[in-house]
Amino acid sequence: MPLELCLQVAFTGSTDTGKIILELAAKSNLKPVTLELGGKSPFIICEDADVDKAVELAHFALFFNQGQCCCAGSRTFVHERVYDEFIEKAKARALRRVVGDPFRKGVEQGPQIDTEQFEKVLRYIRAGIESNATLECGGDRLGTKGYFVQPTVFSNVMDDMLIAKDEIFGPVQSILKFKDIDEVIRRANNTRYGLAAGVFTKSVETANTLTRALRAGTVWVNCFDVFDAAIPFGGYKMSGIGREKGIYSLHNYLQVKAVVTPLKNPAWL
């Protein structure tokens, strides 16, 4: 159906494309638009975390679906007290990741979706190296055929680096160090995106503080990428408008009408 004939548009994709759709909707019949767009989700590993479990969950949060996931935990914030241990174990886990034909048993990671995305991921990896982030493992294509990228881990990542700011949409884990809760809240929220976030801690108080402070549409505590048809999903800021799933999704397709009529000699007056 031509866009100008639609009564409502729901779009999932990149932020740049979402902007174009919103503009076209305004220029046509001013139709409502809901957008589920990009993200640069923080995954926060607190000092009380079980490091082995945190490494595995952070690995899944980033590398799932070759990193091609809008809510991927692509900024891994790790408390300084467990940072060094986390780095070594995150590197070891990435090196164990099996890359190859995704239809074969035991393979964890397939190719990127196409040439454009493959080249984009490699450009971001080069940008990380050039900005003096520490390349712990990976950093190149795998093999000579197909769009396979080595599982890549960067440590000593700074907030102003491209790999910490832009949505890479690929198997590139950026690990950043933090000292305290107030600092990580400020840094985690210092992004144009706000789709999702993850928190790994044994403390209910810490979890409550972070879930309330993080400006993201979904915050997972001691888990990641957990979805349900009843749980609303959508983002803050440049990560979109509106919510999918749950009763909130129905609001996107409804309008309220007020009907007013005069009543002559109403009985209750």
Automatic annotation (TrEMBL):
It is found in: Mitochondrion matrix. Keywords: Oxidoreductase. The keyword Oxidoreductase applies. Residues 9-259 form the Aldehyde dehydrogenase domain. It comes from the Eukaryota. The active site is at E36. Its main location: mitochondrion. GO terms for cellular component: mitochondrial matrix. The keyword Oxidoreductase applies. GO terms for molecular function: oxidoreductase activity, acting on the aldehyde or oxo group of donors, NAD or NADP as acceptor. PROSITE patterns: ALDEHYDE_DEHYDR_CYS (PS00070), ALDEHYDE_DEHYDR_GLU (PS00687). Belongs to the aldehyde dehydrogenase family. PANTHER family: ALDEHYDE DEHYDROGENASE-RELATED. This is Aldehyde dehydrogenase domain-containing protein.
